[in-house]
Target: Fructose-1,6-bisphosphatase class 1
Amino acid sequence: MLGKKHKTLGEFIIENQSSFQYSSGELSRLINAIRLAAKVVNHEVNKAGLIDILGAAGDTNIQGEDQQKLDVLANDIFIQTLKNREIVCGIASEEEDDFISINSNDEKHQNKYVVLIDPLDGSSNIDVNVSVGTIFSIYRRITPAGTPVQLEDFLQPGNKQVAAGYIVYGTSTMLVYTTGDGVNGFTLNPALGTFYLSHPDMKFPDNGKIYSVNEGNYVHFLQGVKDYIKYCQEEKEDRPYTSRYIGSLVSDFHRNMIKGGIYMYPKSSVSESGKLRLLYECNPMAFIAEQANGKAIGGRTRILDIVPTELHQRVPFFVGSKNMVDKLQEFLDKYK
Ligand code: AHM
Ligand code: MG
Model:
C-alpha cells in the first residue's frame, strides 16, 4: 500500500511553493488546475475506444488538419478549467486561431500568467490505442496586470518560461513538469485519482542509443540530417543505435529522457519549417529537456532563444541527450 514516502502531487506543489521566486500561490493554483484538467482528459482518453467519440469532428484547425473529437474535448476541458478558476489572464491553444483573454481588462483581475497549450498532441494515434499527450507552457505576462492581455504576452522566447510540462496518457498516465528547478514526474493512480511522485529529478543520460525520426521523410531531409541518420546506423563503437518512433512527441520524448536518445523533426524540402509548433510543442519540451540535463536546438539555434513572430509558428526541432544533440549539430554545421 502507499506509505509515507509516496508524496502526492498536491503535497509536492505546496512544499515547493515557497522555493519559487515569485511565490504568491498563483502558480501553485495554476498547476493545480492543470492537474485537475489532466485527470478529466485522462478519463476521456481512457474511454475513447468505448464510446462513439472517435473520428474527425468535421472541423479543420488553423494548420489545415482534421480535428478529432477528443482534441476538441481536451481543448475545452483545459480552457474551461483555467477560465472557471480565473487564475490566468490569457490562454493560447494549438486548437484555437487566436489567443483567449480572460477578464484581463478588468482591474479586479490581477492575474499575471498566460498559458499556452497543446491539449492533445499526437491525436491521430487515438484511433489505434497509442499514447497521446498534453503539453503546456506558462509565462508571466509582460503587459501590466489589469489591462487587456496582448499578443506580445504570448510571443515571448522560451527562455522566459516560468513553468512547462506534459501529461502522457500511456500505459500509465504521468504528469511531468518543471518550474525551472529540475523536472519531476508524477504517476496517476487511477483507482484513487491521485498523482504520486514516482520520478523525482528526471534527467536525460548524457549519451543515448535511441534515435526517433519519421524516416519515411528521409528523402526530403537536408544533407546534415541524412548524414547523422547514417551515422546512427553505422556499425562502429556503440552503434548502430536503435530506431524508435511512436509519432507522438510526448511519448517519444518521455522514453528518450528516461533511456537516453534524440528526437528529430527536421525541416525538409517539402516543409520549410518542419511540422512542430514553437510555442505549444518545442518551447515547453525544450525547457523540460534543459532542466533535465538535455539539449534542444532548431538547427543552429537554441530553441529557447528563438524570438517568436506568430502564435502558430513552426520550427525544426531536435531534442534529447546532450552528446547526441551535439553530434547532430556537428553534422548540421558541415553544411552551413
Ligand atoms: P499534432 O500536433 O497534429 O498531433 O502533430 C504533432 C505530432 C507529434 O506528436 C509527432 O511527433 C509528430 O506530429 C508526428 O508527425 P509525423 O506523422 O509527420 O511523423
Ligand atoms: Mg501537437
